[in-house]
Structure formats: structure tokens, C-alpha cells
């Protein structure tokens, strides 16, 4: 049996790629594509794949009418909040890649998803998930750490969800970090933003990039750099499709792709 999938943000960079991946996977069926400001667009023009008769819808009704079982959301944080409230209220499973959601949002969704399930992952690339896991293992052996995340020029939230999750997990693995020696910040912000355990996070936005991150560890006489690069949005698709196929079996809210990979 195929999974009936609807995509929020279907005309966007990630949403369009998800539509294409869903169309190409024999176990999933793209039944609805929603993106309010792009209503009426032929899905073929966003995906390059034949999707006979499927046009981008402008409202939740397009999801309801198509009988979606799983919704994928790659929009923006405020749109995702509304979309997820709708999913929870209507018993539709949700797979969410949208970043910028907060702990308070997670608490709300944990309480709201009782009739259906929700998987939220700030990064669906397996390499990024492993980067975070490896950072956790390395953390107790080093005294300094800084995170540098690099993204394309259109990303509107900073730091990235992946960077936030990385510092949270590093801080949970070790709180024993050298203090920042800076006494004079000539340009405010030069030392980055401070995340949990005061770990500095630096966000770079550059045309030509997709999604990249370095976690730099230092201790006496040595450093260790863990770097992950997503060169293409296709890097996220195996993770998204895995979540689409497994979300029905993960009661309530699941945070992070790790849980689906048994890392
Ligand atoms: P994008 O190209 O701007 O696409 C977002 C799309 O959502 C746009 O077409 C936007 O419409 C549409 N949208 C806005 N409100 C909507 C609503 N209420 N319902 C349905 N669609 C709506 O952005 P992107 O690069 O695809 O990124 C989207 C999100 O995914 C970001 O939060 C990004 O950080 C995240 N992301 C996550 C991962 C991951 O692995 N988890 C990977 C990459 C990106 P307009 O054009 O009218 O604004």
C-alpha cells in the first residue's frame, strides 16, 4: 500500500524537491501540493516529473479533499505552526523540516498530536545527523568548541536548526568549556552568538552554498574539525521519505532523524 502524501510549501526549494522525491518513490503517492501564494501552478513545473492533473492548492481543503495520510512541511516557522495545528486537529501525520520552531512550539505539538503523529527534524541528511552524534562523542575530550553553519543567501532564520541542535547536544555531553577570553569586541557580534553552555555559533549566508556546518574542537596542541556538506537538496530526501514511511508507527512527537535511524 502506498502512503498518500501532501506537501506544504510545494512551490518552494525544499517543498518542490520533496514533491519530486514522493512522485519518484513507488511506495509514496503525491496527492496534494499546497502553497497559498502559488495556487494553480502545475506540479510538473515545480518537479519536472509528470503529475497528471495535479496543481498547487491554496488552502487546507486541498489536503482534506485528497485524503492525505502524511503531510510534509517545508515552509517557514509561522506557517508551519498553523499547518501543524491543522494536522493535529485533523488526525493527519506530519513530517516537518521547517526550522525556526522553538521549545515552546515542541511542547505545544507534544500535547496536540494525540490522534496522529509528528516527526520534526532540523536536518534530514544522514551525514548531518552523524555529525551531531560524533560531536557528542568528541565533546568530553576537548576544552574549546565553536560551531560554524553556512547556508545559501535566502535562508531567513539564524542560527540554523541544525546548529541549535548541535550546540544543545554538545552542551548536554559536556559543560566543561574554557571561558571566552574576549574582553574587547571591536565589532559587536564578532564572537558569534552564544548558545547553551555559552558555545559560540557563527552563521554565514553566501550565494552558491546549500547547507554546510563545521564543528571545531580544540585542546592542547590539537584540534578536530567535523564538517558536513549538503551540496544538493536531494541529500535530504532519503531522510524525508524514511520519516514519511515511519511516522505512522511513532506515537506523538518525535524530534530528530536519529530516533528513526536507531543511532
Ligand atoms: P522556500 O524556498 O522559501 O520555500 C518555502 C515555501 O513555503 C515558499 O514557496 C512559501 O511561499 C511557502 N509557504 C509559505 N507559507 C505557506 C503556507 N502557509 N502553506 C504552504 N506553503 C507556504 O524555503 P526552503 O529553502 O524550501 O526552506 C523551507 C524550510 O525548510 C526552511 O525553514 C529551511 O530552513 C528548512 N530546511 C530544512 C531542511 C531539513 O533537512 N530539515 C533542509 C533544508 C531546508 P512564498 O514563496 O509565497 O513565501
Q: What is the tally of helical segments? A: 9
Which term fits the overall shape?
elongated
Any idea how many domains?
2
CATH topology name of the largest domain? Rossmann fold
- Compute the average pLDDT: 96
Helix-and-strand structural type? alpha/beta
Task: Report strand %.
Answer: 15-25%
List how many beta strands DSSP finds.
11
Look at the structure and give the CATH class of the largest domain. Answer: Alpha Beta
Q: H/E element string?
A: EHEHHEHEHEHEHEEEEHEH
Radius of gyration from the CA trace?
19 Å
Write out the CATH superfamily name of the largest domain. Answer: NAD(P)-binding Rossmann-like Domain
Q: Any low-confidence stretches, pLDDT <50, length ≥5? A: none
- Bound molecule types: NADP nicotinamide-adenine-dinucleotide phosphate
For the largest beta-sheet, the strand count, sense and barrel status come to:
6 strands, parallel
Distance N to C terminus: 28 Å
Give the CATH architecture of the largest domain: 3-Layer(aba) Sandwich
Amino acid at each position: 500500500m502506498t502512503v498518500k502524501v501532501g506537501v506544504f510549501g510545494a512551490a518552494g526549494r525544499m517543498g518542490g524537491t520533496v514533491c519530486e522525491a514522493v512522485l519518484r518513490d513507488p511506495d509514496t503517492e503525491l496527492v496534494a501540493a499546497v502553497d497559498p501564494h502559488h495556487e494553480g501552478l502545475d506540479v510538473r513545473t515545480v518537479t519536472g516529473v509528470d503529475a497528471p492533473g495535479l496543481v498547487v492548492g491554496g488552502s487546507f481543503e486541498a489536503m482534506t479533499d485528497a485524503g492525505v495520510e502524511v503531510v510534509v512541511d517545508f515552509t517557514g516557522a509561522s506557517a508551519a505552526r498553523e499547518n501543524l495545528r491543522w494536522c493535529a486537529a485533523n488526525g493527519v501525520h506530519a513530517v516537518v523540516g521547517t526550522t525556526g520552531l522553538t521549545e515552546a512550539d515542541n511542547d505545544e505539538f507534544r500535547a496536540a498530536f494525540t490522534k496522529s503523529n509528528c516527526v520534526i527534524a532540523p536536518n534530514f541528511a544522514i551525514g548531518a545527523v552523524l555529525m551531531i552524534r560524533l560531536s557528542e562523542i568528541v565533546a568530553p575530550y576537548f576544552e574549546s568548541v565553536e560551531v560554524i553553519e553556512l547556508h545559501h543567501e535566502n535562508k531567513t532564520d539564524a542560527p540554523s536548526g541544525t546548529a541549535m541542535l548541535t550546540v544543545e547536544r554538545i552542551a548536554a555531553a559536556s559543560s566543561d568549556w574554557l571561558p571566552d577570553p574576549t574582553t574587547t569586541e571591536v565589532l559587536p557580534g564578532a564572537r558569534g552568538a552564544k548558545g547553551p553552555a555559552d558555545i559560540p555559533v557563527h552563521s554565514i549566508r553566501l550565494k552558491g552554498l546549500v547547507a554546510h556546518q563545521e564543528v571545531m574542537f580544540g585542546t592542547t596542541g590539537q584540534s578536530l574539525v567535523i564538517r558536513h556538506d549538503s551540496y544538493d537538496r536531494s541529500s535530504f530526501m532519503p531522510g524525508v521519505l524514511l520519516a514519511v514511511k515511519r511516522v505512522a508507527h511513532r506515537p506523538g512527537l518525535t524530534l530528530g532523524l536519529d530516533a528513526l535511524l536507531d543511532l
